[in-house]
Amino acid sequence: MREDLLHFIWKYGKLQFGELTTSGGEIIQIVEVGTHNMLEGPDFFDAKIVIDGQLWAGTVEIHVKSSDWYAHHHENDSNYNNVILHVVWEDDIAVFRKDNTQIPTLALKEYIPSGILDAYHKLFHQNKNKFINCGHEIGTVGDPIWGNWLDRLYFERLERKWDLISQLLEKSQNDWEKVLFIMLAKNFGSRINGEAFLGMARQLDFGMVRKIQDPLQLESLFFGMAGLLSQELQGDDYYDRLKKEFTYLGAKYKMVEHPHQQPQFFKLRPSNFHTIRLSQLANLYSREQNLFGRIISTQSLGDIYEVLSVSASAYWDDHYTFGKVSGSSRKKLTTKFMDLLVINTVLPIKIGYSKYIGNDVSEEIINIVSVIKPENNSIISKFRELKVRFPSAKEGQAILQLYNEYCIKNKCLQCAVGHGLLNQFNGKA
Are 195 and 104 contained in the same domain? Predict the structure, then answer.
């Protein structure tokens, strides 16, 4: 028995209603189960329960065993003084409030229909060699369950992306332009070099980025601060000019090269090399002096593409690394890469800023993300094998949130899919 199942049973009234009685023989009538509390304190607030003819209003606490009350030290916590009913699976000990008054206890063991226990076992415990608990059943879930749940999951994932932005805003005293730069730098680095680019961007005085409009100077600044201009390279005029510019900037702004983390080439395709990405980032900022304002004013994916559409400097047309000539191609940001920037930087910034100024752009965000193609990764591929559909990046991002925050944490009863399947199985029992 798990406590989350007891929460589910109490919250959704899955009891065999009739004459419920406490362990002491008092007759119980549930008027209102209360509001589920996801934070600290009793599990349900504002419950109304008639116990032995007397109407009580207060909180309800749920445990697997009564003795968990003492294991969790609730007897010393004033937040639990207003508990009117202790709901448990097994009543193994009498429980008292801080003032030594006994709390009535309802033992659910006698009142839960066998069908719901069988359904719970079928769904969550017969999961050997399954990717997720409901792997065999998730494909049967209909659109009515998926619709609102996927929207909610998508915005939950946006909130998680907001955590770092919030920290950066606090440290920068709400300098949104600077925070946008740091987040863009991180995501230009992608998964492999994201932390290295993040360290570089945080270490930089963003005032320098604001002042410098020459692409070569910005490239020298980014390359130098990332620790990429320390080698001796003969016969490469572009590299020599970068080193010279970085030396000049270092002297002018009293700046010292001290890379937080060295970028890596390992496991990267050439188009994703940090040399190419840093040049693209530098060219973006040399072109856009008010990038934050441009981003916030966009209202469609096409508008955002127009702002982000940028190429690396001409040197990189026939190079991927310093000093090594390659086949010629313009190193322009691809639509696929811009989509990642939109998902991981632009939309979290847009929704965060809208909340900051008191606007609601939820519909705009949904409209934008719904026309982006879903990304391909191992998790998405496995859900596709389970017949889950991914019309757009909205569903893709939502499924990643579902998997990371619900599936692998076994929070099936906090999931609309698990809830729906449990009801479905119980109905067949």
Answer: no
